[in-house]
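Retro notes (design track)

What went well: tokenization of the new backbones is finally stable.
What didn't: we kept losing track of which sequence belonged to which structure.
Fix going forward: every design gets posted as structure first, then sequence, in one message. First example under the new rule, 282 residues:
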């Protein structure tokens, strides 16, 4: 990992995500790009002078807030390698554009909890970043606590190159001296057997398995997948939950897109959302 991209809106939640990114950067010796995009005011009938004045005010406010963050970083993290950038425009579009421009290996951003219909959409910006980012995304919930990873849980449905995912995660686990747990929510005898075979083969293929445990989680009668996973996490807290983002047929898949979104709202653990394994570069 070389570049971690951190979008800020200067809320406490986004600053918490920045603190999370700093911990990652220290362990991986990565650079951080601290980013903010402000939107010029939309004034259908306003005159040019009025619009320009409001735009200038918005720009100055954004730059002042970024200046405070930069000064704080220089004071508290003198050895941190970071850049900062303030631009105007739609936040979602700018985040995606500049994350790719900086060839970011990871995007780290905060999101607040929600209820009702809002949880389906995961927010106007965060959800779109998850859908469209060309690199993995870490979502840091509002309730998450800052700290190094101690236990990483990868929830798999065995429909991708899980060995590649585990190899990727094992590098992260090794950096933090964390335990890596690969879990599968029980579905039927066939999927359970596939998971057991996968775990056995992963060990037999000469892969260093010291950091990885494989577990099948019982899915209680009349309980859906996400609730089974949440119940397990409540009883067995983790420092980072990892799931894959599905590009096709997500409705039919065990860990579909809507389930991944719910995890970001209801889990207090940061959530690492990765693309399908065959599109991740290791």
């Amino acid at each position: 990992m070389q570049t971690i991209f951190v979008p800020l809106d200067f809320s406490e939640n986004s600053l918490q995500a920045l603190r999370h990114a700093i911990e990652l950067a220290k362990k991986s010796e990565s650079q951080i790009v601290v980013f903010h995009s402000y939107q010029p005011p939309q004034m259908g009938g306003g005159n040019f002078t009025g619009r320009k004045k409001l735009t200038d005010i918005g720009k100055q406010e954004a730059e002042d807030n970024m200046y405070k963050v930069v000064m704080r970083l220089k004071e508290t993290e003198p050895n941190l390698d970071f850049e900062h950038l303030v631009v105007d425009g739609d936040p979602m579009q700018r985040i995606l554009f500049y994350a790719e421009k900086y060839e970011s290996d990871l995007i780290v951003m905060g999101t607040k909890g929600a209820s009702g219909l809002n949880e389906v959409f995961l927010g106007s910006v965060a959800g779109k970043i998850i859908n469209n980012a060309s690199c993995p995304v870490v979502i840091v919930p509002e309730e998450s606590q800052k700290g190094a990873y101690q236990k990483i849980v990868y929830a798999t449905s065995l429909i991708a190159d899980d060995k590649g995912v585990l190899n990727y995660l094992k590098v992260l686990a090794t950096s933090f001296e964390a335990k890596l747990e690969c879990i599968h929510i029980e579905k039927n005898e066939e999927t359970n057997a596939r998971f057991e075979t996968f775990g056995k083969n992963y060990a037999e293929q000469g892969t260093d398995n010291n950091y990885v445990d494989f577990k099948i989680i019982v899915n209680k009668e009349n309980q859906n997948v996400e609730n089974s996973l949440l119940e397990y996490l409540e009883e067995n807290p983790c420092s980072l939950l990892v799931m894959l983002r599905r590009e096709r047929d997500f409705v039919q898949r065990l860990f579909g897109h809507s389930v991944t979104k719910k995890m970001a709202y209801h889990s207090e653990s940061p959530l690492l959302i990765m693309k399908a394994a065959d599109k991740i570069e290791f």
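Added context from the reviewer: The longest helix spans residues 48-76.
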